[in-house]
Design a protein that fits this description.
The protein is α+β, with helices and mostly antiparallel strands. The protein has helices spanning 2-24, 33-55, 61-79, 89-113, 116-137, 146-163, 167-179, 183-196, 201-214, 217-233, 238-250, 254-266, 275-298; strands at 301-307, 320-327, 336-340, 347-351, 368-376, 388-391, 395-396, 402-407, 409-410.
Amino acid sequence: MLSLWGAFAVLLLLALLFVCWPFFRTFKDATNPSVNAERIDIFEQRQQELADDLALERISRTSYDESLLELKRRLLNELAPEQQLQSRGDNRILALVGAAFLILLSAIFYHFTGNQSQLSAWEKAMQELPSLGERAVLGKGEPLDANERQAFLLGLRTRLAQDGDDAVAWLMLGRVAMTINDYEMASQAFDKVLAMDPENISAKVSYAQALLVQGSEQGMNQAAKLLSQVLQVQPQNMDAISMLALIAYERKDWLEAKSAFELILATMTESDPRYAMIAQRIDEIDGRIAQAQNAQAVHQLSVNVTISEQVQDRIPLNSVLFVFAKAASGPPMPLAVQRFDTFTLPMTVTLSEADAMVAQLSLAEFEQIQVFARISKDGDVAVDLGELEGQSAVFNHQQQQQVDVEINTLIQ
């Protein structure tokens, strides 16, 4: 702070010197005195020539008087630089006026463009940093309000800039930044901590929390990775387990979410105010699991595949069996496909939404379907001569979850 005001003072003195110095200088003619003597000799010589011309009546009296007057004026102008400016009274007044004007102008300019209030706030934050740190970290006294958290952040950042990197200070900076919803600053601070200490568990947990609050898919993936690293070292870290439970819940991974919430519930007593909330969340997840299982049962199909005696001896060597369902009226792409490089007929095949080739094109999207079974000689799903195929009739798979398909046709 002192160095800043010292710099202001030096700049002001230089400005005053620049403004006032010309008023205190003494300007002298640098001309050699012998030059003035020569000018006077030339004047007297020219004056004598004019007098001779007048005596010889070469010029009139009027011309003589005019020429002599002009000659005197010219001499006076040539001799004027000889005078020295020695008077200082008026110059000092002008210098004082200029200095006062400069100081006043500087003060007005700083008042409207300077950051004196921010400078005062910064100075106060540095003075109060130790006490704010005790309240923020050790919990002594009242919790920090919004303004005090801002001051604490300012003091911490200044201390880090002055004293160099400190993992503990950066971790504290990130946590305080989260309390004022500055998650960008928090993320940068946690990155600093992990760069200095890659195994810092506290930094990973806090960083994951900041990423989850931001809510982006990329942030959620990064948070899950950090929490997995924490649980590898501390399998019972409840903060990490709680956040992983939330991530699984957001991703609708009900089984993973239920497992995490049950683990959290096991660490609580029924008197804990959070117990009922966690138990209710588990019940909700059970309902979602049951709903998903019911939906899966509706969109799951059991296919009994057999082969007729007429084509049984026509099965190609190294053949591949494809069992797939297609919409009766819809796109030609299969809704569900199973491939078997080795097979023995008869056999039962289960088709479900998990066997869809495209997520948006599955058994759940159509009611009327038809099931095919094809023995391919080259493993290519495209139809070729010499392959065997069978198909079912068109049916409503939501009402019928089992179908028989007999391979009885030789493609020729």
